[in-house]
Known about the structure:
- This protein has 2 domains: 17-59 and 110-251, CREB-binding Protein, Chain A, CATH 1.20.1020.10; 65-102, no CATH class.
- Helix 3 (105-120) crosses helix 9 (222-255) and helix 7 (177-192) packs across helix 8.
- By secondary structure, it is mainly α.
- It is 43% helix and 9% strand.
Amino acid sequence: MMATSEDSGPPETSEVSGVLEIQNRDMEEQETGSLDITNPTNSSRVQTSTGFRFPPPIIRVERCRCVKCGANPDLYCKLCKDESLYCKKCARRAKHPHPLKAFRSKDDTCLQLRKYLTLSYYEHIVACESLVCLETCEASRDNREHFRNCTARPRRLQDMILNGRVRFDAVSDAICRICSLHITFMFLHANNCQKSDCSVEWCHDMRDMFDMGSCNIHIVPEEYDRKCQEIHRQEWKKVEDRRQNILVAAYGAIAI
């Protein structure tokens, strides 16, 4: 059973497994509709020690809401990978192909945790090159190649900046959802990156254009941070087990 926000202990095993099962699905169905990139009220350039830059955008996880009207959801689909949430009125009109279930408070907690967990892997998704790593990391590396080749995304960071504000619709209303999420990951990466030779696309451009590192652009509530950390510990334990098995197999091959 999913732990509620009032729980003080670590998430139960069934909860962790359920979230990981969702997390390791194909990320093509992830939508940035569950995320919100908020531009500062004052988007004027600010003087920094290295020149004038825009204040960085703030990345927030939006509350769960009806995908049609934005109202509080009453029903949702457990089969769809994306968030198929509806109020009762919109559900009658949607003609969704799968049965809809009642949306309860524990479902809201699970979906919110899924969003925060997705964002917590940003560094792995945009930069990790380890041969043996988290399953989520390895499964999402194709997204980098997709981002390089996708024709539906802005070709340059400058193409999606209008008057100092980040706009995913600055080029086209049909911007790729995978690329939108990947760009969000790149902002999170750039806010912490200090490498002069960073190979992550747009990292240097983001740091040149925005005052990255001047503030925390993504704050995780304590309850979700605690649960994400617990899931990470369990995932890293699996990685260490896999690495150990590889070493044992390699030594066995040498002995033979």
